[in-house]
Amino acid sequence: MIRPMTEADFPSVYELVKATGTLDVHTPYTYWVMLNLRTELTLVCERDGQMAGFVAGLAPFRELDEALVWQIGVWPHLQRRGVGAELIEAFTASALSQGFRYLCATITPSNQPSLQFFSALADRSGTDMQQSGVTGSMRGHMREETIYRIAIA
Question: What are the chain's domains?
Answer without folding.
Answer: 2-151 (3.40.630.30)
